[in-house]
Amino acid sequence: MKFFIIILLMLNTLFAKVYYAKVEPFELRIISSNVSGLIIQANEDLIGKVLSSKPYIKIDSIVDTKELKYIKNKLNYIQETINVNERILENLEKDLKRKRENYKKVQSLKFKSSVEKDRLRFDFSHPKAMSEEEIKSAGEE
User: Fold this and answer.
1) SS3 track for the chain
2) How far apart are CA 25 and CA 42, in angstroms?
3) Are 40 and 60 in contact (CB under 8 A)?
4) Other CB atoms closer than 10 Å to residue 48's CB: what's the count?
5) Which of 7, 101, 106, 141 is the most buried (most CB within 10 A)?
6) Range of 129's domain?
7) pLDDT tens for residues 93-129?
8) Bridge pairing between strands 39-42 and 57-59
9) 57 Cβ contact partners less than 8 Å away, ≥ 6 residues apart
10) Cα-flanking dihedrals φ and ψ of residue 50, to 5°?
11) pLDDT tens per residue, range 21-32
């Protein structure tokens, strides 16, 4: 009887056919990054597990770190430039005020020539020093 079963099994294996089945994943996830760089480490132990606070992939960020340092330096330079420009603006405002007061003092004097009065008026009403409204108001005085 054993012999008959063994022969039957051998005959079954001779006539057996191979069947292929396509195995598809239950859930497909694509892991991507918006940052380009060399992958330093990929923790393959976390594949198929729920990700926690541990990073799955570590990407080389040397280029980004250098760019961040460059941008911070640039921001500092721009801030210094703004501070210098504000100090220049304060000085120009003081100078404009001084020139306006000087013109008002000289305007009523009769012994000053009209050329000198016009020169003083031009000094404080020059377009680089004042806006158009201030120039018009200075011309009316």
Assistant:
1) CHHHHHHHHHHHHHCCCCCCCCCCCCCCCCCCCCCCCCEEEECHHHCCCCCCCCCCEEECCHHHHHHHHHHHHHHHHHHHHHHHHHHHHHHHHHHHHHHHHHHHHHHCCCCCCHHHHHHHHHHHHCCCCCCHHHHHHHHHC
2) 21
3) yes
4) 7
5) 106
6) 2-140
7) 888 788 778 777 777 776 677 767 677 666 666 655 4
8) antiparallel
9) 31, 33, 39, 41, 42, 43
10) -75, 125
11) 787 777 666 666
Which tokens sit at 9?
A: 């099994």
Q: Is the sign of the CA dihedral 122, 128, 129, 133 positive or negative? A: positive
Per the structure, how many domains does the chain have?
A: 1
Contacts 24+ apart (CB under 8 A), 89-97: 92/129, 95/129, 96/124, 96/129, 96/130
What residue has token string 């000087």? 102
Structure tokens at 45: 């132990």
